[in-house]
Amino acid sequence: MIEIDRVSKTYETGNKALKNVSLTIEDGEFVFIVGRSGSGKSTLMKLLLKELEPTKGRIKVNDMDLGRMPRRYVPKYRRGLGVVFQDFRLLKDRTVFENVAFAQRVIGVPGRVIKESVPEMLRMVGLSAKYKAYPRQLSGGEQQRVAIARALINDPDVLLADEPTGNLDSFNAHEIMRLLDEINQRGTTVVVITHSHELVEEMGKRVITMDRGIITDDTGSYITPERQRFYYEN
Questions:
Q1: Strands 158-162 and 81-84
Q2: Which of 61, 100, 177, 227 has the smallest set of CB atoms within 10 Å of its CB?
Q3: Global pTM?
Q4: What distance in Å separates the CA atoms of residue 152 and residue 143, rounded to the nearest whole number?
């Protein structure tokens, strides 16, 4: 599903955000990428979204080499990814229904399909009764559920979640993680970027730890690219 092969990223400022990172995530996995601020995890996500290009190394998603992908194919590639951000990024002047439907409207999905698919997606995330509500009328946890529904509405192969519980209280954070687990059980590959060790420990999933641009083991020691690819920590 995702192959990251000896990838490094150095910004124009000279900051070496990633240093020789290798990682393989299989189809249907649920993986946490954990690290403190500045560890390189967000840079890694931007590379997967092709918002940035690596300084060196190769990234493949679904056998597509991102380094060889023409720019005109990038929008189509991104439609195969569901993305959830910490700040929700909802359209404040649109209802829950319209927020989720927006992701389908921008790619030309017919209205009759939207009328069927959006209610089903809202049912899955537990918001059927809130379809007419506006974001300001929702709790933080409910807003994040809308964001997840919008990320999933086009049936992506991979869901990337960047600090999806960062702005939530403990109860809502656990509810969102439970929902992501259910989504994974339905077959979607889920990659969660987080700094919350508490949530990670409770989930019992595969954990990739990053620090200062490298993948480390649970003692903080560097893992060579040969060992990194399928490293498993729990």
A1: parallel
A2: 227
A3: 0.85
A4: 14
Q: How far is CA 141 from CA 20, 45, 108, 131, 154, in A?
A: 36, 23, 29, 15, 22
| Residue 97: both structure tokens together | 């229904």
Q: What is the pLDDT of residues 112-149, one digit of tens each?
A: 999 999 999 999 999 999 999 999 999 989 999 999 99
Name the DSSP letter for residue 209. Answer: E
Contact predicate 51/83, CB 8 Å: no
65: left (phi over 0), alpha (psi -120 to 50) or beta: beta
Q: How many CA atoms lie within 13 A of 63 on its CB side?
A: 0
Residue type, 10: T
Beta bridge partners of residue 25, listed in sequence order: 2
Domains of the chain from N-terminus onward: 9-231 (3.40.50.300)
Q: Where are the alpha helices (DSSP H) in the chain?
A: 41-48, 74-79, 96-105, 111-124, 140-152, 170-185, 197-203, 225-228
Given the structure tokens 């840079």, which residue do they identify?
43
